[in-house]
Amino acid sequence: MPLSRYLISFPDPGRPGSAILYSTRKGSMVRVPEGVLAAARAGSLAEAERDLLRRLNIWTDDPAAERRAMAGLVDHTNQRSATFSATVLLTLDCNLACPYCFEGHFRANRVMTAETARLLIGHVQREHIDQGRDVEIRFYGGEPLMAVPLLKEIARSLWDAATAAGTRFSCSLVTNGTLLTRSTVEELLPLGLHSAQITLDGPLKVHDRQRPFVSGKGSFGTILNNLQAVYDLITLKPGGNYTRENYRQFPAMLDALLDAGMDPARLGPVQFAPVHPKSGGHDAHSAACFAGDEPWLMEASLFLREETLRRGFSVDKPQMGVCMVELANTLVVNWDGTLYKCPPLMGWPELSIGTLAGGINDYRASHDLDMWKNDECLECAYLPLCFGGCRFFRKLKTGAVDGVDCRRGYLDEALERLVLQDLELQPRP
Ligand code: SF4
Ligand code: SF4
């Protein structure tokens, strides 16, 4: 009867003679005297201690059953999932002209038509609401608030269909924040709007250089005013896209939010991400799940996470993370009705999984589903956080989605520091 394989342990720097055990499966952690850890490894743990560790998923009575449970976890989740989630790209149009944005070159007139919206509403109603599922739509762009009438049409139709079927509809925005006025939010609240992910690329000077209006004027002041005006109505999730040259300036953006009187406790988690290299035409500055494993990227993400926590803002904890590609009830709908499994993959038409008009194709082989169901991954302590890594990065690095994008190097370096950050700085529930 051993310790769980989905576990890391390390000496507690704050308490000599103690160790920290952290379950990657449950996110639970405990401090124990090093003697207890040694006894656990030797199989001579007292029953009371074993029981405590068992309740934290740090001890397992049946290692083979634990491995089987992990191997079946995604299938189990897919079978029981009661919610359908879609990211819907309404338009490529945008009122900003960010130098790193892929869409600037070809965004004109790339707007979802009424016919495509009708197909989308029909698909969601038929395949999900009528099957008893709740629906969560994340409106995306370009800038989704450049297409408010279309957004409202889709949200209202799905709200009505869900209400009639006794399920729930809700929606969120991925927005640049410039059009996120109080009156617009008040219009969308009755249609299920609950949150908005907004982008501030650092403090005023850095942001205005990276995210100017099409006219060339800076957008920082407009966004900050809007955030102040709406943050009591919906959950705002601030984020930003940093580079190697400017990431150290990003905490000043959080200071600007504090100076504007915003209470971090009323905001959602802050999520900074590096500006990624462009994929097959798209970049993924706001969508990729991982930061990448170059040393500077790891230092930047840990630095920004710590500075964010120190200012009282929340961040995501390390948590079980399955790639959206593996989840059956998720979809990305492009403005033209083509379907994908993840926003950054929209850069590669060969990774489309179908269309609203023609239906969803079998994508098991093209997207290498279950690529993590191998002995190395199933025995890996990081499996619950990784599940074989990111298909977008795999495609960027190798040109194909044909295997794992191993996170071991990154997690070997970073996980202990993330756990210690949370222990010291993350607000307790
Ligand atoms: S491919 Fe998967 S892991 Fe990578 S960004 Fe997309 S959803 Fe996230
Ligand atoms: S891809 Fe690498 S880090 Fe991820 S579960 Fe497999 S072996 Fe572990």
What is the secondary structure topology, with strand pairs?
Layout: E1 7-11, E2 18-23, E3 29-33, H1 34-42, H2 47-55, H3 63-71, H4 73-80, E4 83-91, H5 114-127, E5 134-141, H6 148-165, E6 169-175, H7 182-188, E7 193-199, H8 204-210, H9 220-230, E8 235-242, H10 251-259, E9 271-274, H11 295-310, E10 330-333, E11 338-340, E12 354-355, E13 359-360, H12 375-378, H13 383-386, H14 391-398, H15 408-425
Parallel strand pairs: 4-5, 4-10, 5-6, 6-7, 7-8, 8-9
Antiparallel strand pairs: 1-2, 2-3, 10-11, 11-12, 12-13
Helix pairs in contact: 5-6, 11-15
Bound molecules: iron/sulfur cluster (SF4) (2 copies).
Largest sheet: number of strands, sense, barrel closure = 10 strands, mixed
**How many individual domains?**
2
β-strand amount = 15-25%
Write down the overall mean pLDDT. Answer: 92
Using only CA atoms, what is the Rg?
Answer: 23 Å
- Second rung of CATH, namely the architecture of the largest domain: Alpha-Beta Barrel
Helix content: 25-40%
Strand order of the largest sheet: 9-8-7-6-5-4-10-11-12-13
CA distance, first residue to last residue:
32 Å
Low-pLDDT sequence parts: 279-287
> What name does CATH use for the topology of the largest domain?
TIM Barrel
CATH-level-4 superfamily name of the largest domain: Aldolase class I
- Inertia-based shape: globular
DSSP strand tally:
13
Specify the number of helices: 15
